[in-house]
Amino acid sequence: MTERYTPDWGSLRNHATPKWLQDDKFGIYTHWGIYSVPERGPNGTWYPHNMYRPGNGKGDQAAYHEKTFGPASHFGYKDFIPMFTAEKFDPDEWAELFKASGARFAGPVAEHHDGFSMWNSKVNQWNSMRMGPKRDVTGELEKAYRAAGMRFMVALHHAEHWWFYPHWRDDCDVSDPRYAGLYGELHNLEGFAEGTIKNGNDWLAQDRPSKAFLDNWRAKIDELIDGYQPDLIWFDFGIRLLQENYKKRFLADYYNKETEWGKQVAVTYKGHDFAPGAAIVDYELGRMDQLTYYDWITDTSVDDMGAWSFVREAGFKKVSTLVHNLVDNVSKNGYLLLNVGPKADGTIPHGAKECLRGIGDWLKINGEAIFETRPWVAHGEGPTEMESKGHFSERREVNYTPEDIRFTCRDNILYATFLGWPGENSVIRFNQDESSSFATIKRLEASEIESVRMLGVDRELEFAMTRNGLEIKGPSEPPCQHAFVYKIVRKEPFES
Question: Do 363 and 384 fall within a single domain?
Answer without folding.
Answer: no
